[in-house]
Amino acid sequence: MTFLSILFALLLEQLKPLRADNPMYAAVKQLAARMEATFNAGQEAHGRMAWVVAMLLMLVPCMAVYWVCLKISPFLALLWNILIVYLTLGFRHYSHYFTSIQMALGSGDEAGARSLLAEWTRQDTTAMNVSDISRIAVEQALITTHRNVFGVFFWFAMPIGPAGAILYRVSEYLARAWNEPEHLKNEAFGRFATRAFYWIDWVPARLTAIAFAIVGNFEDAIYAWRNFAHRWKDEAIGIILSAGGGAMGLRLGTATENAASLPVADAATVDSISVEPEVPPGEEANVRALQSTVGLVWRALLLWMLLLLLLSIAVWLG
Length: 318
Fold this sequence. Notes:
Elements: H1 2-15, H2 23-39, H3 44-72, H4 74-88, H5 95-106, H6 110-121, H7 130-156, H8 162-177, H9 191-200, H10 202-215, H11 218-228, H12 235-248, H13 287-317
Helix pairs in contact: 1-4, 1-13, 2-3, 2-8, 3-4, 3-8, 4-8, 5-6, 5-7, 6-7, 7-8, 7-12, 7-13, 8-9, 10-11, 10-12, 10-13, 11-12
Organism: Noviherbaspirillum album
Family: Belongs to the CobD/CbiB family.
Protein name: Cobalamin biosynthesis protein CobD
């Protein structure tokens, strides 16, 4: 059921991708804002309580509906799973930005590419050259794909099924929503949400990096992972970008500035924190790197689907 649910959800999203401002996402944002307004009294314990309450409000109804559907008919349970995966996946949410940037750079329209990148990442792109635009677009694509696709795959495959997919996406959002806005930066309230998502994403981030290594240049990916992932403040993002860059033969991030300033609505902020004389393996990003990224992501997606298929077959035979 896991493989079929993800397969049909992916097909459905290809036909009709959800908008980033769809009502379901808006409801999650409203819930997060209400929890923060209700529980935030400036202490970490309040953030922990708000996180637990928010998760219970999301996960308990999801599991209740799933078990009711399963009691009535496995087909109904399958439909429920497909719906949840469809709502939690984001494979096509922001791909139009990446594709448009790729087309703009391919036609020599650097100004248009800068404008699209600024809209996507919400950062100043005025002084960026083609290499900078390409690098940040690649970084953004890898992180967004992990957070919106591969992380969801992993948690949906866990025994809690659809609740796992919701757990991953909502915890990722709470880690951002309770830490990145100006009025919440450096506050104790959001620390538990950050720590919770760190552990929730610990295994998926490493599996994504391994997938990139397997479908790309394995030796360079592992070398970059071991030697350069610590340059990012966010450990998981450092692992994904260093392994992804090594797999494609690209140097992602820099030693002296942000590897990628990801948008508040899409992914966590990525910072590089150390300056080292050693240079990561690979070339500077260019227009061709965007096409390489597309290939890497699709190969990694096919690898995940193959593993899920084998897991489903093993369960059926067992």
